[in-house]
Write a structure and sequence with these properties.
By secondary structure, the protein is of the alpha/beta class. It is built from eleven helices and 17 strands. The protein folds into two domains: 235 residues, P-loop containing nucleotide triphosphate hydrolases (Rossmann fold), CATH 3.40.50; 64 residues, no CATH class. It is globular.
Length: 321
């Protein structure tokens, strides 16, 4: 499949007179239709500058950006940045409708089809109740949702987003990333998201761009970049094991336990034990816990040299270990 956008020997940064501040050097990247790409890296490394450069809002130092569509740039790329919009008494509908302006004639009048596209974009991000709300009454999270709806209404083959989930709660962060993935798949859009949402990126992205301290970008599918150590080397995680997705706890109780069971209840039992300082052993220990289900109720059976004890919650279990 032909990429929607490619870069050739692209160098990104800033000029101040004869001085040059180089952020990224010799980038050869591509955005492919139907793919959600998550762009990740440490704070302050230049992710926003790359988004702005790809969008045509900032000139590159050197190199080329090629668009593989015969369209005007405003019909080719829609952008969601982190800048706060000040729109006076403009409503959410008015803001989202700006996404249709590249398609309007000299009279700048929305057609029935344009209005339906705007309403559909509003429905897709679940802000129907805010349609007539003035922008100055919106929270940061609500404003972010409205900006994403505007980008969807613009209906471009490429969407670039800079931290689109920054001001959202967990439920809405998950929903936005799922929405962007569905949008990429169902409409064959190439979507690039600069994000710090590591857990969501690993579960939703088709492809990762990972910035390095050497002013270049590693790319690959999330799982390969986890397993080859790329994420660990870039982020230098402290107390977090990316391969398991868990915070590392010290077994300060000095007590080893073993656990058997199935499904999520087994996972959460191990999580509680490790968080409370117990070492969970793969081998059967003198203190062994069986996690089971009796019809609709969970139970925990603790077997020790003193005998067996039954519990109806993890809290009771840990209290009696």
């Amino acid at each position: 499949m032909q990429p929607a956008l490619t870069t050739a020997s692209l160098c990104i940064g800033y000029r101040n007179g004869a001085a040059e501040r180089l952020l990224f050097d010799n980038l050869n990247l591509e955005l492919v239709p139907g793919q959600l790409v998550c762009f990740m890296g440490p704070n302050g490394i230049g992710k926003s500058s790359l988004i702005r450069t790809l969008a045509g809002l900032q000139n590159p130092l050197r190199g080329k950006i090629r668009h593989h569509h015969e369209k005007k740039v405003e019909q080719l790329i829609s952008v969601v940045l982190t800048d706060r919009i000040s729109g006076g008494h403009m409503t959410v509908f008015d803001l989202v409708a700006f996404g249709r302006y590249p398609y309007l004639g000299w009279n700048v009048k929305l057609s029935n089809q344009d209005e339906e596209i705007v309403q559909r974009a509003i429905r897709q991000v679940h802000i129907e109740t805010l349609t007539d709300t003035p922008l100055h009454q919106l929270s940061d999270g609500q404003m972010q949702m409205a900006m994403i709806a505007r980008a969807i209404a613009q209906d471009t083959p490429i969407i670039l987003l800079d931290e689109p989930t920054a001001h959202l709660d967990l439920n809405n962060r998950v929903e936005i990333m799922r929405l962007l993935r569905r949008l990429a798949k169902s409409t064959s859009k190439a979507i690039l998201v600069a994000t710090h949402e590591l857990d969501l990126a690993l579960q939703t992205a088709d492809w990762i761009w990972l910035t390095t301290r050497k002013k270049n970008i590693l790319s690959g599918i999330p799982e390969d970049l986890v397993l080859d150590g790329s994420f660990d080397s870039i982020f230098e995680f402290k107390g977090f094991d990316l391969k398991t997705g868990k915070v590392q706890h010290l077994p300060d109780k000095g007590i080893s336990v073993s656990v058997t069971g199935e499904g999520y209840e087994l996972l959460w039992t191990k999580n509680a034990l490790e968080r409370n300082g117990y070492e969970v052993s793969e081998l059967r220990s003198p203190s062994h816990i069986t996690v089971g289900r009796n019809k609709d109720s969970l139970f925990w059976l603790l077997s020790t040299e003193r005998g067996d004890m039954h519990f109806n919650s993890i809290r009771e279990l840990i209290k009696n270990l």
